[in-house]
Amino acid sequence: MISGNGRLVLVVGPSGAGKDSVLRFAMSRLSGDSRFSFPKRVITRAIDAASEDHESVDWQGFDDLVNRGAFALMWEAHGLKYGARRTIEDDLAKGSIVAVNVSRTIIAETAKRYPVVVVEILADPDVLAARIAARGREDQHLVAGRISRRVPASPVTIPSHKISNDGELSAAGEEFCKVLESLTVK
Fold it and tell me: Which CATH number goes with the domain that contains 129?
């Protein structure tokens, strides 16, 4: 377990819930505040101006990074590989609040290695379907699969918060910022 007062905030939720939008809101609002870190993910997906700002690599490049021990967190979902670089450990050791969008499937394992808080971003299934379809990356069959995907619940011993993102982004974003600010050492 990493020592220090830092916390790893695992931002989770179904596809289309607006996790990246809520994170971008917090990044903008908390910009310049050294207590917070919002690392870019490494993803085996091409850069798309409409999606999150991430480091794009191909599958071989991702596997090379794995072999070099570059990732603190990694997972596969929806035919892609995702990772968060080991630099998050430096931020945690400095006492930073590190927020990253991850798969719900890695919560339990991650909590064994880092001081974790889970923030689940939620939205109505109709809102999820509309948002996923608007991205234009999946056909109707894949949209339905993302909506119906079931993953294990977070262990009850891990601190967690639920934020609804059905309405104005600013409401969910402000609520997320309040959660992050509540985690800082007073």
Answer: 3.40.50.300
Single pTM value for the model: 0.85
**CA-CA distance, 133 to 181, in Å (whole number)?**
33
Checking 155-160 for CB contacts under 8 A at 24+ apart, the result is: 155/107, 155/108, 155/111, 158/107, 158/111, 158/116, 158/117, 158/118, 159/116, 159/117, 159/118, 160/117, 160/118, 160/119, 160/120
Per the CB < 8 A criterion, the answer to whether 54 and 47 are in contact is yes
Asked whether the beta carbons of 129 and 118 are under 8 A apart, the reply is no
Q: For the chain, which residues score pLDDT lower than 70?
A: 1-4, 47-52, 135-156, 185-186
Looking at the 3D structure of the chain, how many domains does it have? 1
